[in-house]
Write a structure and sequence with these properties.
alpha/beta; Spore Coat Polysaccharide Biosynthesis Protein SpsA, Chain A
Length: 230
């Protein structure tokens, strides 16, 4: 299974840190955020990666190279302007191929086992399933959540909502209606698929952090550098 790491955003909430550096290369524990994602993917056996880039694209490409130092192969999907998540994935489809693929945000830190998604990817097919989302408990900065999960199916509304982790497996068919190069939000594609019962999901209860602000970057830094209790 191929994987795509989303790294094209401008990181507006991270300013001024992102005025001269892309968010994916901001460091915690002495290492760029995106490298934690790459190394976890490599450990899971997912070694064919696509990274989309736009804002400070050259800095990301020079920092990561072809991925060989991490035990993976990286190719880049270069966007002249960020195309939002749905548009960015659509633009990268020629690099991702015809089979379902994993997409993960570059600015999360988690202990999720990506290896378990390979079998789930095989279940996605037009008419049977278009996406599988990993959901997590609602963090303090997002108490209302994003989606409801019941009997393994994800919907837009429900009595108990969870937060989308930024980890999902998608069938290329989900993006069939999007014109390559057009801006498109992923949520606009997921909503009709959910209404048709074609989005499955799971609740990850382990470690997960969304590193979307300088304060949360500092929190990750503290967590990674704190002395381990004896």
């Amino acid at each position: 299974m191929k994987a795509m790491i989303l790294a094209a955003g401008r990181g507006e909430r991270m300013r001024p840190l992102t005025d001269h550096l892309p968010k994916a290369l901001l460091e915690a524990g002495g290492r760029p955020l995106i490298t934690y994602v790459i190394e976890r993917l490599a450990r899971s056996g997912c070694t064919e990666l696509v990274v989309n880039v736009s804002h400070f694209a050259g800095l990301i490409e020079r920092a990561l190279g072809d991925g060989s130092r991490y035990g993976v192969r990286i190719v880049y999907s270069r966007e002249a302007q960020p195309l939002e998540t749905g548009g960015g994935i659509t633009y990268a489809l020629p690099l991702l191929g015809d089979a379902p693929f994993l997409v993960i945000n570059s600015d999360i830190y988690c202990d999720y086992d990506f290896a378990r998604l390979a079998a789930l990817a095989a279940t996605l097919a037009p008419g049977r399933g278009l996406a599988h989302l990993v959901l997590v408990d609602n963090p303090p900065h997002h108490p209302g959540g994003d989606f409801a999960l019941a009997a393994g199916r994800v919907s837009g509304e429900g009595p108990s909502r969870l937060t989308f982790s930024g980890i999902g497996v998608y069938s290329p068919a989900l993006f069939a209606a999007v014109t390559p190069g057009a801006r498109c939000q992923l949520a606009a594609l997921l909503a009709p698929a959910m209404a048709r019962g074609l989005v499955s999901g799971e609740h990850h209860r382990g470690l997960w952090m969304d590193i979307g602000t300088p304060q949360r970057l500092e929190a990750l830094e503290r967590a990674l550098t704190a002395p381990r209790s004896r």
